[in-house]
Amino acid sequence: MRDEWFRADRLPHIYCAGCGNGTIVNCVLEAVSMTGWDRKNTVFLSGIGCSSRAPGYILTDSLHTTHGRAIAFATGVKMADPSLHVVVFTGDGDLAAIGGNHFIHACRRNIDLTVVCMNNHIYGMTGGQGSPTTPLGKTSTTTPYGASETPFDLVDLAVAAGANYVARWTSFHVKQLTEAVLNGLNTPGFSLIEVRCQCPTSYGRRNKYREPVDYITHLKAHAILKDKWESMEKSGQDMPADSFPVGEFVRRARPVMGVPDEA
Amino acid sequence: MKLEIDESRCKGCNLCTMVCPYKIYRPGSRPNRKGIYIPELDRPERCPNCRLQELYGRRLCGVCALICPDQAIRWVPEKPYEPMKVVIEY
């Protein structure tokens, strides 16, 4: 059970009321407890940000590293001892902005990591600055008139760079997310699970989703399953504004690095 | 099994009131010591996990516990039901 993986004396955590990161930690730990891994052979890593507080609440070895370098440290852990199970928690500012190069090269090398990206569209911890994934027209402290730059699509980036397993869900789809994380843990090679989650305090407050329930309802309404998305694209329909495809995007068996049999 | 909300962890985000298919959770009406409106349970024995977990031997549904960002929702084992002995005095 996932309760055995929580550091109960550190709870309640510091996340704001209604923050999606707690939900994602629940789902990841549920998936990890389903794999039957030993706590001594599992390492959780993180960079800097709200999402990266997560390993502090988990009762295993963990590394809280410098901003954006979580994947670089994880590569080192995996290369030093390929028998370890390595899971990386990271945020969108961590993975897409400052750690972007580490991310695409980890995809290219196809190292046996599982990366869970908690994408809350904003730099939440430092006060709500716009990140590379802030959607067009949304307000943040550095984009007070609406973001004018096209956001990153992390899933397309990972697929193009060569990751072995790529999925995207939101923090509303808890069961599907647990299943996707379990698949990612069991897939050899690099697996990315992008989770769109709510940040009612920094992002929602400036974009009319102050209540967590309103935000989750918005995520639920704008997440379109991948098959439906593709059929809509094929028939030439206009996509609803702010919507995004969810589901499993790729699962393949490219040559991998860091698996014990090969090392 | 009995459904329980941990008052020391709950932060009152009311996500459980939205996801439960049986509408067991209701938004709270009075603040607790910390000023948090903790959701109230409306006939929690309707929860399928409370009723059927022993029968199926696994956790059923459990969406509220998964979506709870504060790990505040859990099921605690209960003692088996014991019929009360009533002494009737004539």
Mind explaining what this structure looks like?
Chain A is built from eight helices and ten strands. Chain A is α/β, with parallel strands linked by helices and 263 residues long. In chain A, helix 8 links the parallel strand 9 (223-225) and strand 10 (244-251). The mean pLDDT of chain A is 92. Chain B has 90 residues and is α+β, with helices and mostly antiparallel strands. Chain B has a single domain (2-76), classed as Alpha-Beta Plaits, CATH 3.30.70.20. In chain B, the strands form two sheets. Chain B has a two-stranded antiparallel sheet. The model of chain B has no long low-confidence stretch (mean pLDDT 89). Chains A and B meet through helix 1, helix 6 and helix 7 of A and helix 1 and helix 3 of B.
Task: Give a topology summary.
The complex is a heterodimer of chains A (263) and B (90).
Chain A: H1 20-35, E1 42-46, E2 61-64, H2 70-80, E3 85-91, H3 92-98, H4 100-109, E4 114-119, E5 122-123, E6 129-130, H5 154-161, E7 165-170, H6 174-186, E8 191-196, H7 212-222, E9 223-225, H8 226-234, E10 244-251
Parallel strand pairs in A: 1-2, 1-3, 3-4, 4-8, 7-8, 9-10
Antiparallel strand pairs in A: 5-6, 7-10
Chain B: E1 2-5, H1 15-19, E2 25-26, E3 40-41, H2 48-56, H3 63-67, E4 73-76
Antiparallel strand pairs in B: 1-4, 2-3
